[in-house]
Amino acid sequence: xxxxxxxxxxxxxxxxxxxxxxxxxYHHDKHHKAYVDNGNKLAAEAGLADxxxxxVVKKSFGxxxxxFNNAAQHYNHIHFWKWMKKDGGGNKLPGKLQAAIDSDLGxxxxxxxxxxxxxxxxxxxxxxxxxxKDGKLAISKTPNGENPLVYGASPILGVDVWEHSYxxxxxxxxxxxxxxxxxxxxxxxxxxxxxxxxxx
Length: 200
Prior knowledge:
Elements: H1 21-45, H2 53-60, H3 65-82, H4 95-105, H5 108-121, E1 126-133, E2 136-143, E3 154-160, H6 167-170, H7 174-185, H8 188-198
Antiparallel strand pairs: 1-2, 1-3
Helix pairs in contact: 1-3, 2-3, 5-7
């Protein structure tokens, strides 16, 4: 299954003022496209071009760093675009998700503080995650393109803390970007969709 660059699920100005048109143009059209192009080339060379992106991520982890970097970032970004929407974020979560956050993470406010802290304290490039592991929600952070798939978990929400995700709009103020992401961008309906799929 060749990697393909998905179209954004909204126009380039939909997330303003929290994420600019310029950021989306560079991040989606240039950075994500490069992961797709490089990933396809390296997957073909490794004889893994027929596998799904999830399988390529898992098979290349720890064995083929170049392929893993591009495949994992492709997987991460396929979902990253869908994890955001116009007029998103905030604490009005679908009931099922709210119940899980209450029971597993100590409620919305604690989730928000811990998720932002994970993103803020990830040194250098990486991601902060909300995942399902062993039937429960967990918050984690990973360096570079790593994601919870390679640690036996199913990611249901992730935020990119590579500088190209926020530097145009927030300069070095990563915590402000993370607050804007949680308060104003998260597409909770897509998080619920992934939560339900991971909970089957």
